[in-house]
Amino acid sequence: MDFIGAYSPAHLTFLLQGFLVTLEVAFISIIFSFIFGIIIGVIRYTKIPGISQIFAIIVETIRNLPLLLIIFFTYFALPEVGLKLDKFYAAIVALVVFESAMLSEIVRGGLNSIDKGQIEAARSSGLTYIQTLWYIVLPQALRRMVPPIVSQFISLLKDTSLAIVIALPELMNHAQIINGRNVNYVIPIFILVALMYFVVNYSLSLVSRRLEYKQR
Amino acid sequence: MLRYSILFDHWDMYMQGFVNTLKASVLALIGSLIIGIIIAIFRIAPIRPLNWLGAAYVEFIRNIPLVLIVFVFFVGLPAVGIRFDPFTAGTLGLTVYTAAFIAEVIRSGILAVPKGQMEAARSSGLTYLQTMRYIILPQAIKMVIPPLGNQFINLVKNSSVLGVIAGLDLMYFGDLISSETFVTFDVYIFVALFYLVLTIPLSLGVGYLERRLAKSR
After folding, report:
1. What is the CATH number of domain A3-215?
2. Domain count, chain B
3. Where in or outside the cell (chain A) (predicted)?
4. DSSP state of A79
């Protein structure tokens, strides 16, 4: 094991560059999947005939597939039908598709947990259905959804490492490139990379726990 | 139109991958149940250092990517002379990773059993271990089965990381078939169908168990 060689300034910069890509991909994916997750969750909750069922089938199919397969498919299979994305966007599209499906279930669960009496009261005091959803149901549901949503974000951040299959230059990819140079670097590099992921994710989970605690 | 000939011509390869995916998932489930139960007991046993050890395992493993853990078994340990074939390395990685999640499921199941039960059993003369074995665990099991089912679904999906290290699973054979046929789209649609054959019935089963448990409360 060669800790000094593994942690040379050039390697550290290289790892940091990878980590920035990881964080960038995760951040963009989080924003889009949050928006789509809420839209799909609300559509499924409102039970619009036909549309809700179609979304239910799509969401259940995506949720039951491995993310790795979706990433692979987006990057290698879609070009066959004329949709060519570069690595960066392929990873983001795949993550957004998968995580939106996961988040929509959290949103739907949160909406369902709001007492039906609230909706009836709001409706009978003259609010329209859309107004009731926007002003009464969503704000309460979102607050309850914060902890599961944050843990889904942690999953998303970890899952960016799956993009190693399409050689996206993220943290795991850069770690493996360094590991390829000298077998003595492998263990020190894995320790450092694990700590990098851990610090970010553990901080996120502490934030989530704090928010959960505040609600009580 | 999908080229179904790809599926029929390579049926044996698809089946081999399917069986290996199932095998890795079941082996990892058994392994992670054993480790998960031990960690859960560590976390709730009335011994401080064990609590810390259990918490450290769960928090650390849950916050790092599965790919990294699998690479530790596939690239990291060989660097210090411990070698595994890709399938074993992948399955061990899956086991270590899933155990952290299963430990949390079991811990919350045990904590959901009312405290009075433990006190009553202890004051009627049972030891701590006897109380766990005869009073707490039987009640906790009923509550943890649906979330354990969810973990198994995740396990089947996560087993696809074996494909990253050529672990002979569905993803790996998909890769092989697509490099033989020069077709990607159709090949992976069939791979997806094989995964759904496993995960959709499991999801429906877990949903059924969850509803039944909710009613029995």
Report:
1. 1.10.3720.10
2. 1
3. Cell membrane
4. G
CATH code, domain carrying B126? 1.10.3720.10
- Its domain, for residue B85, covers 4-216
Q: Complex ipTM, two decimals? A: 0.91
Q: What are the φ and ψ backbone dihedral angles of A86, each rounded to 5 degrees?
A: -80, 170
Look at residues B104, B214, B87, B53 and name the one whose alpha carbon lies nearest to residue B161.
B87
Q: Which pLDDT tens digit goes with each residue over A127-160?
A: 998 899 899 998 888 888 888 899 899 999 999 9
Residues of A in contact with B193 (CB under 8 A): none
Two structure tokens written together for B76: 């990291």
What are the structural domain ranges in chain A?
Answer: 3-215
Instruction: Flag whether residue A201 sits within 8 Å of chain B, measured between CB atoms.
Output: yes
State pLDDT tens for residues B31-89: 999 999 999 999 988 899 999 999 999 999 999 999 999 999 999 998 888 999 999 99
Residues A68, A162 contacting (CB under 8 angstroms): yes
A 47-106 residues with CB below 8 A of B? Answer: 60-61, 63-69, 72-73, 76-78, 80-81
- Between B67, B79, B187, which is nearest A164 by CB? B67
What number of C-beta contacts closer than 8 Å exist between A and B? 113
The tokens describing B29, both together, are 């489930």
